UniProtKB/TrEMBL annotation:
This is Myosin motor domain-containing protein. PROSITE patterns: IQ, MYOSIN_MOTOR. InterPro entries: IQ_motif_EF-hand-BS, Myosin_head_motor_dom-like, P-loop_NTPase. GO terms for cellular component: cytoplasm; membrane; myosin complex. It comes from the Eukaryota. GO terms for molecular function: actin filament binding; ATP binding; microfilament motor activity. The keyword ATP-binding applies. GO terms for biological process: actin filament organization. Residues 1-92 form the Myosin motor domain.
């Protein structure tokens, strides 16, 4: 069979085909098989543009000089030998990456859900434990507050009784001290008043004696002055009487002479 194929030129045709672009794919087949090699933003309804984007990303841009890894036809894409294996490797790697990403996301979602459930359980347990601790602390605080209130009231009553006793003693002491001071003040007032009465009587007596002496002196001076005035008047009257006597004597002599 091999000799017949060689004789018919089939093997040579295959060799020549392999030396050029032996693999041919339509745009639709290529896009449907290798669409995952580009981002979903580049997925379009135009199959030719989508295939061109896939080839550009995977194999680079075609220059049209016969040295490229692929050529674009009107309905098909022509690849050199080994390009499909390279694209398959890229597809397999991409599918593996996508599978790993899906598994990662699923596992992340699964373990996140388990974590959230465990976290919620822990939070509920912690909240219950904290609520129990808070209630116990509140009960202890109420007990301590009640004990503190009882102690405060008892100590307040005790201190109040002590204060009232001290206050009563102080009031008694103050009343006794004030009574003593008042009595002392009254006695001092009485003694002072007696001294004032004595002083007033003594001063009155002394002033009276002084006034009497002054009156006696004034009376003496007046009597002396009046006596002097009286003697002066008496002398004058006596002189006048003497003159009258002489005149009367002369008149008597004249009367005698006339008779």
């Amino acid at each position: 069979v091999l000799s017949q194929l060689r004789a018919c030129g089939v093997l040579e045709t295959v060799r020549i085909s392999c030396a050029g672009y032996p693999t041919r794919w339509t745009y639709e087949e290529f896009a449907l098989r290798y669409y995952m090699l580009v981002h979903s933003d580049q997925w379009t309804a135009e199959i030719r543009e989508m295939a061109n984007a896939i080839l550009t990303k995977a194999l680079g841009t075609s220059t049209g000089k016969g040295l490229d890894k692929y050529q674009l036809g009107l309905t098909k894409i022509f690849f050199r030998a080994g390009m499909l294996a390279f694209l398959e490797n890229l597809r397999t790697s991409r599918l593996n990456d996508c599978a790993i990403l899906i598994q990662k996301n699923l596992r992340a979602k699964y373990y996140r859900r388990r974590y959230l459930e465990a976290r919620e359980s822990v939070i509920r347990s912690q909240s219950a434990a904290r609520a129990y601790i808070a209630r116990r602390q509140a009960q202890e605080l109420r007990t301590i507050r009640a004990a503190t209130t009882i102690q405060r009231v008892w100590r307040g009553q005790k201190e109040q009784k002590k204060f009232l006793a001290i206050r009563k003693d102080m009031i008694l002491f103050e009343s006794a001290a004030k009574g003593y001071l008042r009595r002392k003040q009254i006695m001092e007032t009485r003694v002072g008043n007696a001294a004032l009465v004595i002083q007033r009587a003594w001063r009155s007596r002394r002033q009276l004696q002084s006034w009497r002496q002054y009156r006696r002196k004034v009376t003496l001076i007046q009597s002396l002055w009046r006596g002097k005035l009286a003697r002066r008047g008496y002398k004058k009257v006596r002189e006048e009487a003497r003159d009258l006597k002489q005149i009367s004597y002369k008149l008597e002599n004249k009367v005698v002479e006339l008779t």
